[in-house]
From TrEMBL:
This is DUF2092 domain-containing protein. It comes from Streptomyces malaysiense. Residues 290-306 have a biased composition (Basic and acidic residues). PANTHER family: SPORULATION PROTEIN YDCC. InterPro entries: LolA/LolB/LppX, Sporulation_related. The chain crosses the membrane at residues 28-49. Keywords: Membrane, Transmembrane, Transmembrane helix. Residues 1-23, 99-118, 165-189, 290-328 are annotated as: Disordered.
Amino acid sequence: MAPYESDDAVGAAGDEETRSGRRRAARYAVPVAVIGVAAATIGLVPALADSGDPDLPKVTAQQLINKIAKSDVQQLSGTVKISTDLGLPDLGGLESGLASGMARGSGTGSGSAADPSSRLTELLSGTHTLRVAADGPDRQKLSLLEQGAEYSVIHNGKDVWGYDSKSDQVSHGTAPAAGKDRAEPPATPKDFADQALKAVDDTTSVTVDGTAQVAGRDAYKLLIKPRQSGTTVGAISIAVDARTGMPLKFTLTPKSGGAAVLDAGFTQVSFARPAASVFAFTPPKGAKVTERKDGALKEGAGKDAGKPGLGKGLEGMDGAKGREGAEGAPKVIGKGWTSIATVDTGAKGGLPTGAKGGDLGGFLGSLGDKVSGKFGKGTVFSTRLVNVLMTDDGKVYAGAVTKDALVKAADAGK
């Protein structure tokens, strides 16, 4: 547990209560398969906060963390505004295409425009508006609103549907069984807060930073700051609903300053139970439906959708290969905010160039910085938060750390 400021110290019993509460609260996160590695590392135009700071009873950082952990909101509906600014170059949509291709190549994407694991890569950049709704652990819905179109992911009982109105395509699968890991990337302030609080340890400073109003509700502000040098993370601010303890707004700012890398917040929220019709879905007549079954894909008409036992729906996002120590999984170097994930791809020679790599290899190489050290030579690809070093002998080092930290890690690995 983190060494909070002097007025925040608690005993071991409080630590255990916090961990237990977090596990209970995490069950009700809106389930969406979004991206993968980038989503696991980061946290998104900022959500509008009402003017005026409410006068609320004083709380310590530990008490506020406990309040988040004990939050047991099961019913809600609202609108979330998400803005992501990783500082990536404008690739004219290429970044989303590459991410979608990676998802398909790793078995997490189906090639369907309705597949969540590829479609929601759009949240990697720009500003987006989401509508969310939840009614307990078995009913959630998230809709990505676009100009003249809408993309929705609906979890209703055993069924998980994805529907893209623009292409009239549907993706269908079944939700993981209760008790199984659901590697559900974040989409709401609570999702991001849960991930951030997992990083709270003795490398972290946690304080209460006043109060605010978010989506018309009184909230406390929790401020999380790394104590370590070498990380690209500056600070994380979480606005916590004073009554329910649910995070209403999440803001991550980089150490380099400037605009937030990620800002996600409710602009409207209600804790009334949504109508059952919100979670009802039937594939439109004539829509192309893609089914999943044990990793194999079957395409058919809408009449075949909804049959029981037609696949996991979100398989590939929670496989064992994603866990440290499993075959092909990254190893973690270091501790806390300066931890670095590394994997040996076995691909010698660095980025493909010339006839081997074509224009793409040269283009990707132009986006990175050439570096060298005891490890040899490589290329560093930088964003405002996550940096990645690809060495010429096929090793990859990635983390929310500086370029120098990656080079040092590669040197130490020799």
